[in-house]
Write a structure and sequence with these properties.
Two copies of one chain form a homodimer.
Chain A: H1 6-13, H2 17-24, H3 32-44, H4 51-58, E1 63-68, H5 74-89, E2 93-98, H6 103-116, E3 120-123, H7 132-141, E4 145-148, E5 159-162, H8 164-177, E6 183-188, H9 194-207, E7 217-220, H10 226-242, E8 249-252, H11 255-267, E9 277-281, E10 295-298, H12 301-317, E11 329-332, E12 335-337
Parallel strand pairs in A: 1-2, 1-3, 3-4, 4-5, 5-11, 6-7, 6-8, 8-9, 9-10
Antiparallel strand pairs in A: 10-12
The first copy, chain A, binds a DNA duplex through residues 2, 5-7, 15-19, 21-22, 25, 29-31, 34, 49-59.
Chain lengths: 345, 345
DNA sequence: TTGTAAGCGTTATCAG
DNA sequence: CTGATAACGCTTACAA
């Protein structure tokens, strides 16, 4: 790959490889004069140190693995962008993997990452129990792991995410405030966060003495295609809207569901927010371009990304035994951004 | 990082390292019996070969660098997802970089990638001339480079993207068909593709004998924040709509501009498509959730990604001298998806 | 069929 | 201040 090696420079300058190495690394043992000569020569000949050799010697790669369920949602893309920024800032590179919300792919990705050699792994696990054993063993033997976003996961390490229950509670509260109390909640099937987000919804209803109806709790299979999701939504909504107690609000617990339901409602000619108000999780940057502008529960992606990375770097650089560290779980605050989809006036 | 090494296995089994290596690599020189013994032992002790050592020896990393302007647009996220799929399928990993549409960051990313060691680079360059020299030298001395998406770039290598002129021509034609001939075109400033997309617009108007008005050609500075983009759009649109010859259609030449303008129009209470029809480049998956459902020029991201990757792998694996290869430029077909934002009934 | 030895390109230790 | 030597963990001629 690179053209000229350290050894060759040494030969050409009649110096030893170790001198060259030290000179290029600005060692105090080398005279300014030699340093200058070596550096100039290296520059001229466009010397690029072979990273593999260096890292082999040093025992680290400066790569960190990032494993996301999908890189295709706006939330993921944002997160990834900020992770990348923080990584570069700290002289680390990101090797990207996606699990497509599927344990098998998650396992494959983890194995690839460890085979490839990364100094640490940042993961949003598929489900609460997915690949727990593998991940534990990686964390114990291979490289540190930090869990983010999907933090309900039984691995003893740093975790960073949001308070899922509280966030949904707040969102439900907004609907209740505008007197929309017959709230349909859209959940992803088998997602680690679903349960907690659902609990927030249930608690809010309970606190405001609103009866919880099973028919209002919808689980959508997430592993299917977007068209399938749309179709399921359409069928369910059509059914519910024709029933005696048609809901007058929708709370989406995931970005995909929240955003896509708007398209389905438009298609069904159901007016938002007049007939049905909508609020839900989403970090979409086009919220204002949606039909109508969408009220969202917004996650602090930048903070989540930079903190997650920092936690991972701390573990990578820590001299302590992994068992000596007391791991923390950080919950970041979400914010509610109200827009037209919940504006009744 | 890994726990047990090849050498240690050798000691424990009273065999030589080379035997172990060959056994694990299924060499024909090794007896089935030994192979079995070695493999079982390796499995039990959870042996992970050190990738760095291996790649140092073999002279390749199995990593390819992907350098995108941004990873935050739906188009980029899709592309990245498909690139990742293809890469994994071919046993390559992706190291991700973004240039934030900025030459300096692009240069930094390229240097990092080469320092890090990648077997090839896939790049969508910032502009037509950005880092041309650096990239040429990388392509010549370091590892093969394939240009994608932003293919108007003077590097002699494989390129894959779309026919920008034709695509905009088609989009403009759709507007003309519905008799919306006073078309405002939104362009990004300093983007490599802008010129060609603009030419398509101009050619369409010319072919249909529609006068081209300079006031209808808008250039938006892309390097600014999203809010700044929105503000610029708002100001310009307000101005144009109050003028004597208010446009009755908008053609967006980039995903960000096309999608965001919908939010701005909604904000200004300008009705789409009644007052102004909108069409433009975008691969957004929520097109139906937009206000209104957006007519788009859709790029075949999956094909672009898998072909780009294939072209790069071909170069990586090619025995030929770089100068012996005749490089090709592949133009993929785009498709127009008509939705409500251009539906006049 | 197995083992020996050299080498990939660096860096670290220690001696000169 | 500079250099010799060993080592990181693996692969691969070549030798046995």
């Amino acid at each position: 790959m690179a053209k000229i090696t350290l050894k060759e420079i040494a030969e050409r300058l009649n110096l030893s490889p170790s001198t060259i190495s030290k000179a290029l690394n600005d060692s105090y043992e080398i005279s300014e004069k030699t340093k200058k000569k070596v550096k100039e020569f290296a520059q001229e000949h466009n010397y690029q140190p072979n990273p593999l050799a260096k890292y082999l010697k040093l025992g680290k790669t400066n790569n960190i693995g990032v494993l996301l369920p999908s890189i295709r949602t706006p939330f993921a893309a944002q997160l990834l962008q900020y992770l990348h920024q923080s990584a570069i800032y700290n002289s680390y590179n990101i090797i990207l993997m996606q699990s497509i919300d599927n344990e098998k792919d998650e396992e494959r990705a983890l194995i690839t990452l460890t085979n490839q050699g990364v100094d640490g792994i940042l993961i949003a696990p598929v489900s609460e129990t997915s690949n727990l054993q593998l991940l534990s063993s990686i964390h114990a033997n291979h490289c540190p792991v930090v869990v983010f976003d999907r933090i309900h996961y039984n691995l003893d390490t740093h975790k960073i995410g949001i308070d899922n229950m509280k966030s949904t509670y707040m969102a439900a509260e907004e609907l209740i405030k505008i007197n929309r109390k017959n709230i349909m909640v859209l959940c992803g099937k088998n997602l680690g966060v679903t349960q907690y987000r659902l609990e927030g919804y249930q608690k809010a209803l309970k606190d405001y003495s609103i009866p919880i109806k099973e028919e209002n709790i919808i689980h959508i299979d997430y592993s299917k295609s977007l068209t399938t999701i749309d179709e399921s939504l359409k069928e369910i909504i059509t059914g519910r809207m024709c029933s005696d107690d048609a809901p007058n609000a929708i709370l989406g617990t995931t970005e995909t569901l929240t955003t896509r339901v708007l398209g389905v409602l438009a298609d069904l000619k159901i007016q938002v927010p007049k007939e049905i108000a909508v609020i839900g999780f989403s970090n979409i940057e086009f919220a204002n371009s949606l039909n109508p502008a969408l009220s969202t529960v917004h996650q602090p992606t930048e903070e989540m990304a930079s903190t997650a990375l920092q936690l991972l770097l701390d573990l990578i650089n820590s001299k302590k035994e992994r068992s000596q560290i007391d791991f923390q779980t950080i919950l970041l605050e979400t914010s509610i951004q109200l827009r037209k989809s919940t504006a009744l006036t």
